[in-house]
Amino acid sequence: TEYIFSIFVMPVGAYFKGGLTPTNFIVSEYDRAAHVGTGAAKVGGNYAASLLPGKEAKERHFSDCIYLDPLTHTKIEEVGAANFFGITKDNQFITPYSPSILPSITKYSLLWLAEHRLGMTVKEGDVYVDQLDIFAEAGACGTAAVISPVGGIQNGDDFHVFYSETEVGPVTRRLYDELVGIQYGDVEAPEGWIQKVL
User: What is residue 111's three-state secondary structure?
Assistant: First the structure.
């Protein structure tokens, strides 16, 4: 049999256990990507370094790891294989910027929605792990994760809870409803977001 084009699909559930229910994460002592390495590329083996820390996190009843920057271990880079975002008490949407993070269309979609639909101030920049108390809400986002609320983060002996360990924060919920609504055609998409494929 000869094919010109084929598509492989596989139904999957929520990326993090619980779907839109907040889950807890632990700061990893391991590095997911090397400084000035291939962390921002979709290459084979790039996430192999996260397998052992992810397994250890799950054994300790966390959904996955929070990875810090490999150079100083002071700044949040990623949540497992997803991007991190925080919503400050003064209505800012902040997400890490790093050359070690795989670019995410979901993250950039949320940055746009936060600014243009929710009227928030948005920023890509440093997110210091010792300054988590600036965030009222936090989440993980990505193509597979969509939006997964972060209930709390264990960092050494400290456990920081964001909005709630059991309820989704109101801003995270609005962002989720906007994004998923656009994906399902229930909410009007911004100009140029939807393309017909013939």
Answer: helix
Residue 159 identity (one-letter amino acid): F
Neighbours of 124 (CB within 10 A): 16
The vertex-174 CA angle with 91 and 195, nearest 5°, equals 110
Sign of the CA dihedral running 71, 75, 76, 78: negative
Q: Hey, what's the torsion of the CAs at 16, 18, 20, 22, to 10 degrees? A: -90
Domain at 23-184: CATH architecture:
Alpha-Beta Barrel (3.20)
Q: pLDDT tens string for the chain (198 positions)?
A: 888 888 888 777 777 776 789 999 999 999 988 888 888 888 777 778 899 999 999 999 999 999 999 999 999 999 988 999 999 999 999 999 998 888 899 999 999 999 999 999 999 999 999 999 999 999 999 988 899 999 999 999 999 999 999 999 999 999 999 999 999 999 999 999 998 888
Please name every residue paired with 67 in a beta bridge, in sequence order, or none if there are none: 78
User: Rounded distance, CA 17 to CA 34, Å?
Assistant: 28
